[in-house]
Amino acid sequence: MKKIFLSLILILIGVSTLSGCTKDEILNHYNNVVQSAGSIELTGKLSLQGKKEKGIDDYTGSYQADYENFSDTEYLFGGTSIKREAGKDISVTCTLEVLSGTAKVFWISGADEAVTLLETTGTYSDTITLPDGGNYIGIECEDFTGKIEMNIK
């Protein structure tokens, strides 16, 4: 009951705040709320195995990590933006070194199946055009020992 009441209050506050706004302003406010909600999916800085430097937004930056017998999934970059200010294209460069176990660098968009970008020792470099909605790049590991370096612009 508390959740319903809180939701109704937030809706009323939002409607009163947005009254008098243009259509574009309302869409920008909505996009900001959606993007903020999408950031929750990213692995928190304290939970990451490596060091992450944020770029101009949650979709860009750099990440470096040394893993030792790590089994988990880290969502490194992405979000749920409907209209990303920096455009739909991101440039991804990733170097993966697998010493033991398995590691898979992936990109997942919406409800689509994850696309594997790299899962063996090597380098991946390409430009990805992000569709509207949720887009995340991460690494899935199983007893993984090795290194990753990733840069997204």
From TrEMBL:
Highest taxon of the lineage: Bacteria
Signal peptide from the UniProt entry: 1-20
PROSITE patterns: PROKAR_LIPOPROTEIN
The protein's name: Ig-like domain-containing protein
Keywords annotated in UniProt: Signal
